[in-house]
Amino acid sequence: MTGVPRAGLLRSAARAAGTVWRAAPFHVTGYLAVTLVGAATPVALAWLTKAVLDGVAGGHTDGLLWLAVAVAVVGTAAATATHAGQYLRAEVDRRAAMRTKDELFAAVSRAPGLARFENPAFLDRLRLAQQSARNPGRLVDTALSAARSALTLAGFLASLAVINAAFAAIVVASAVPAVLIELRLSRQRVTMMWRIGPAERREMFYAHLMATVDAAKEIRLFDLGGFLRGRMLAELRTANRERRRMDRREFAVQASLAGISAAVAGAGLVWAIVAAADGRIGVGDVSMFVAAVAGVQSALNVLVSAGVMAYEQLLVFGHHVEVVTAGDDLPVARPGRALPPLRRGIELRDVWFRYGPDLPWVLQGVNLVLPHGQTVALVGHNGAGKSTLVKLLCRFYDPTRGTIRWDGVDIREIAPEELRKRIAAVFQDFVAYELTAAENIAVGDLTAEPDRVEQAARDAGIHSVLSALPTGYATMLSRGFTAEPAEDGDDPATGVLLSGGQWQRLALARAFLRQDRDLMILDEPSSGLDPDAEYEAHQRLRRLRAGRTGILISHRLGAVRDADRIVVLADGRVSEDGTHPVLLANGAAYARLFTRQAAGYRDEVSA
Ligand SMILES: Nc1ncnc2c1ncn2[C@@H]1O[C@H](COP(=O)(O)OP(=O)(O)OP(=O)(O)O)[C@@H](O)[C@H]1O
What we know:
Elements: H1 9-23, H2 25-58, H3 64-110, H4 120-131, H5 135-173, H6 176-195, H7 197-211, H8 216-221, H9 225-277, H10 283-324, E1 345-353, E2 363-371, E3 375-380, H11 386-393, E4 401-406, E5 409-410, H12 416-421, E6 423-426, H13 437-442, H14 450-459, H15 463-467, H16 500-512, E7 519-523, H17 531-545, E8 549-553, H18 557-560, E9 565-570, E10 573-578, H19 580-586, H20 589-606
Parallel strand pairs: 3-8, 3-9, 6-7, 7-8
Antiparallel strand pairs: 1-2, 1-4, 4-5, 9-10
The chain binds adenosine-5'-triphosphate (ATP).
Residues 118, 355, 359, 362, 380, 382-388, 428 line the site of adenosine-5'-triphosphate.
């Protein structure tokens, strides 16, 4: 992979143009207009100056006053156009960047699966795509700057051709190598950006670790600051080495190209002086010639730079185009099959799964039925594949082999969003959002009214804690952000942090908000709760689960014993399946785990 996106330049250009036009049609038009004015003024000024000089040299002073007024008017127009252009350019930039970012993150969150987030190449591409969010806006600027230079170039070139056509051709021809070399450099720069992507991402990762509270405790206790800084700087050095090499190459090329330009301009000046001395051209012509050569060269420079910049911006924007047009990461049926309420149950038929072709099998032929209206508890050692099975049920990944059937329908035939609407879940690694307490519960169902949010908090046993917070449910659950400034102008309230168990109850409240769904998934819902809270939570969950289809994962076997069925996962397969008394009587792994855990409690009690 060269790092140059596969999305073609034309496709990227069309997409960027469409984005900009839809984001800011009036501003683009205005910017175009002031650019035209800006482009015309230098040529007008050059002709006016020539007229003034010729008038002075020839002693014709009659029209000089009017010429001076014309110079002032054109100068004012040029200055105004510059300021208006700056404003319009910035606005086009802002609007287009917002649209591009929206499009990018809509595409990223639309992807139904998780595999892309575990693919380093995708993450590198996503980072470059994020960096290119401003490129469509910049492209307008670049294109207009190219158009402006093209107009200026045409004006100066015509003026130069009037005086010396052959020399005009030489100046233009001398720019051809620059174009070819700069295009090549552009491709190399984009490839370099791709190559240093992993180092840049790692550098950002180390910086993030040091700058956020998540790792602050361990960094201080283990004294990791120096280690992480060292790693960060090493990555930065790697990236800088590549950048420096590129910059040096560019410097050498630019210096050579500048040398060619200077030589051409110098030769022109010699010719003009000789021609003026011979009387073939006048003083005004010399001034015009010198201005025209400088004008042509500088316009050509800008034109070439703009073209090359546009090329580079489009190449990088190609990463955005690839991300937003990547399609689904799992085969998705659209429209999927209608999904009536669950009646019979969910069945895993010979399900095999591994996270990648080069990774070990996690599930190896799991056969399991989750009957409608029953709770199945899933137990097994760490790494047995319990959470993986849950991820397959939510269709974050597809089984590598085998099928999962919802009332007999393969879940691959159902649109993932429809399937997920039917599921409530507390994941083992649930997210503590840096949002308010109310929002942290409402993420379980964004349509929920405040009274439902409060009821869910009551069900999860967290209402009294939340209502006692400084601003109740409106309190930010973060020390890194403040809530919105208060309307009365008071300082915004600082947020608070919850304890681990309190967060877990909050995550439970999210699931309670979805308690009407067909399938309830509880992956270690009570591991951080104190014994009273755990007891209460399981009483509530038991009531909630009654008559519902659910899957409960827990290492606290006391919490799973009253499940309708207990399934033990071992070596990627179902090794035991039955009720608590049956599995105890079997005397196999479950009985051993249960007896060992129970013994711990019994010993303490008898002691
Ligand atoms: N995203 C992933 N990519 C690669 N391997 C993974 C991924 N997630 C989990 N695994 C691997 O899959 C195996 C099963 O993990 P899983 O989280 O399903 O186990 P578990 O039974 O839930 O364990 P625990 O009881 O510790 O929560 C583990 O060996 C783990 O390393």
